[in-house]
Amino acid sequence: MSEWLFVPVAYLIGSISSAILICRLMGLPDPRGQGSGNPGATNVMRIGGKKAAGITLLGDLLKGLLPVYIAKIFEVPVEILVATGLAAFIGHLYPIFFGFKGGKGVATSLGVLLGISWWLGVVVIVTWLAVYRLGKISSLAALCASTLSPIYAWFVVGDLWIVAVASVMTALLLWRHKSNIQRLLAGVEG
Q1: Where in the sequence is the domain holding 68, given as residue range(s)?
Q2: Between helices 160-176 and 78-93, what is the axis angle to 10°?
Q3: Contact between residue 121 and residue 85 where contact means Cβ atoms under 8 Å apart
Q4: Overall number of domains in the chain
Q5: Cα 67 from chain centre
């Protein structure tokens, strides 16, 4: 088996929408047609409450973590490891099973970082918690934690491949959060 097979498999795993599946299983409306229209944990919280959002968050995190963790077990080279993580993340953003319209990627990127390095993921989580505690705005906390993740990757892991994948995920997260950034700059993001 070629080690590069981890990459397309990770993309397919990332393409499974936790939000849509959880909403269907719990008898909730499709998150793509409710609230913000985003199939992610924050929108699921709006339409289904904390339990549904928590399960969605866990599902999104696991689909980033598990492919990377399994690739690590098989001791793939670092470039395949980061490609596997990036593929899972891109699958979440652009899922083949849902018309290439996915979520914003915060939990899945965190799962990828946790899979690459437990300590890297913990530092990102602590940053998210600290910023959220200060500002009480989830998108701001996610954007700050993600923006700092390449810097953390350099200091925690020190591998340029890992810094590169953290940078690419950050750029994509910023792109996917452009409406949140506009609302933050306007002072209307809640």
Answers
A1: 3-186
A2: 10
A3: no
A4: 1
A5: 13
